[in-house]
Design a protein that fits this description.
The protein is an all-beta fold and about 120 residues long. It contains no helices and 10 strands. Strands 2-10-9-4-5-6 form a 6-stranded mixed beta sheet, with no helix packed on it. A 4-stranded antiparallel beta sheet has the order 1-3-8-7, with no helix packed on it. The N and C termini lie far apart (about 40 Å).
Length: about 120
């Protein structure tokens, strides 16, 4: 049974940092690309980052490029999103997922609960 469990979100001030974690259950994550999605208040969920399954090539939305870093630990079946220099517009609920390839921009399995990131002074 596919399951994603996100954690690490918090209320932080602008300029702060967070590290989000995601535990993947039900399949071997190493065979798949991994994604982070964000749903900002009043907006649809959108992909913000992806890491490929084979070459670990990474992709970032322009809004987070240079500030966020996606990583994975296949041995632990976990992925991470390190967030630096956070801005109020980064506020939202963050979700992880896995899929065949970054190009598709879509994962499989049910969404987890997500983890809330709020950037505010």
């Amino acid at each position: 049974q596919v399951e994603y469990v996100e954690s690490g979100g918090d209320l932080v001030q602008p300029g702060g940092s967070l590290r989000l974690s995601c535990v993947v259950r039900g399949f071997t994550m190493g065979y798949y690309a991994v994604f982070w999605f964000r749903q900002a208040p009043g907006k649809e969920r959108e992909g913000v980052s992806c890491m490929g399954r084979n070459d670990n090539r990474t992709y970032y939305d322009d809004s987070i490029k240079g500030r966020f870093v996606i990583s994975r630990d296949n041995a632990k079946n976990m992925m991470y999103l390190t967030m630096n220099n956070l801005k109020p517009e980064d506020t939202g609920r963050y979700f992880c997922s896995a899929g065949s390839r970054c190009y598709d921009r879509v994962g499989f399995g049910p969404w987890g609960q997500g983890t809330q990131v709020t950037v505010s002074s």
